[in-house]
Structures are given as structure tokens and as C-alpha cells.
Amino acid sequence: MWIRSTMAYRTSFALTTVGNFAMTALDFVAILLMFSRVDALGGWSLPEVAFLYGLSGVSFGLADLAVGSMERLGRRVRDGTLDTLLVRPVPVLAQVAADRFALRRLGRVTQGLLVLGYALVVVDVDWTAAKLLLMPVMLLGGAGIFCAVFLAAAAFQFVAQDASEVANAFTYGGTTLLQYPPAVFALDLVRGVTFVVPLAFVNWLPAGYVLGRPYPLDLPGWVAFTTPLVAAACCGLAGLAWRAGLRSYRSTGS
């Protein structure tokens, strides 16, 4: 329904998609400006940072396209409109994810793919079968991890009700964090995004294996291949949190 509504105004859709593309492209422009003054960032060259950027951008873009609308859940909880979703014979999670589905978010995915394509052309990698296999695993597994973060943040809004900005710190803030090499951050932050909110499995760990870069925490090499397992575990835990939040919902009380 939302896609049909969007495509009813094709010029508007095209302009908003281009605008979405341009806004996200400014992040990479900032990186290009940095490298106009330095040769490396934390020991990583521009093609390597572009590789991180592309992986993070595509993974987050896919998750944002699929479940990004869940950040509006807090508003529905506050005004009681979530009640209308509860009485329909469709899973509430699917309805919330599809609420005001924004096809314009394809602009973010497209921009991430272009940067990733550029990185793959210019980066110096000794490609092996394992590294080639890791590429789609990184993108899909990373998208799964970001979906879990979106879902967990939505579950938290059943309690906080007005916590969309807190959620954005882990979603939009998380993808911005992953655009830069882990070597530029403090070890405590690296530990946090590895063992607490495992965003490092989106690109830092697998990309380090592909590029032959050491990880600050000195983890074994096989950890780079655990992104699907981490994504599955995160989605499972986020699903439990969602069910608990939905069961605790008591409408507005009015």
C-alpha cells in the first residue's frame, strides 16, 4: 500500500530518493576531505576506509529499508494507535515494520553500493575463495545485526515510550562509527561494540580478515566468519525482548 502511494507521485519519489542519496553521500565526502590532508587514518588507507564505509552503508541501508519504520513505535504507544494493529489478523511486528514504508531509502543502499564498488576496484586484496564467500555473508549478516538493533530499540520504547533518539544512537550512530577503522577509537569503545552491542561483526572483524588488518583486541581469525551466528543470536534476543515488550503493553490508560 505504501509503495503504491509513493509511486503515485513519481517525481516526488525520484527527488526524495536523490535527496536521500545526496545526504548520505556527504558522510563519504567528509572522509574524502580528511584524506586530502592525511595519507592514512589509523594506519588505514582511503580504499580500505571506503571498504568499511561501503559495507556499513549497504548493511545498514538494507536494515533501514526493511525495519527502519519501527522507530515510530514510541509515538504509537504514546497516542494509543498501536491498539489498531493488535486487532488485525497480521503479526504486529510485520505491521510496525511496514508502517509508512519508505522506498526512498534505496538511495542510501545505492550510495553504499557505489562506494563499495569503488573500494573493491582500488583496494589491494589477495582474494581467496574464503574472502569472496565472506563478502555476501558480511552484507546479509550485517543487515541482520542492524535489524536486531532496530527491533531491540523498538522493544525498549514499550517502556520508555519516547526513546527514539536513544535508539538512533545505536542505529544511525552505529553505522557512522563503523565507517571508520577501529584503530582510531579507544579500546573500551571497541570492546563495547564487540562484546556488548556486537556491531563490530558487521564489518570491522570480517573486513579486517579480508584486508589483512589486525584487530585491536587480538581475536582469533575464525571470529571473522561468525557474523551469521552473531546476527542470529542478536535477532533471537531482540525477538524475545519484543515479545516481552508487546505483552507488557497496556494501551494509553485513557
What string, H for helix and E for strand, traces the elements in order? HHHHHHHHHHHHH
Low-confidence segments, given as residue ranges, are none
Shape: globular
Number of DSSP-assigned strands: 0
Helical content band: 55-70%
Distance between the termini: 30 Å
SSE class: mainly alpha
pLDDT averaged residue by residue: 89
Which percent band covers the strand fraction? under 5%
Tally of structural domains = 1
Radius of gyration: 19 Å
Biggest β-sheet, characterized?
Answer: none
InterPro entries: ABC-2_transporter-like
Transmembrane segments: 12-35, 50-68, 109-127, 133-159, 180-202, 222-242
Pfam families: ABC2_membrane_6 (PF06182)
Keywords: Membrane, Transmembrane, Transmembrane helix
Explain the overall architecture.
The protein has 254 residues and is mainly alpha-helical. It has one domain.
What is the strand and helix layout of this fold?
Blueprint: H1 2-7, H2 10-35, H3 46-67, H4 73-79, H5 82-86, H6 92-98, H7 106-122, H8 129-160, H9 164-170, H10 172-177, H11 187-196, H12 204-211, H13 227-248
In short:
This is ABC transporter permease. With 254 residues, the chain is mainly alpha-helical.
Features:
ABC-2_transporter-like, mainly alpha, globular, 254 residues
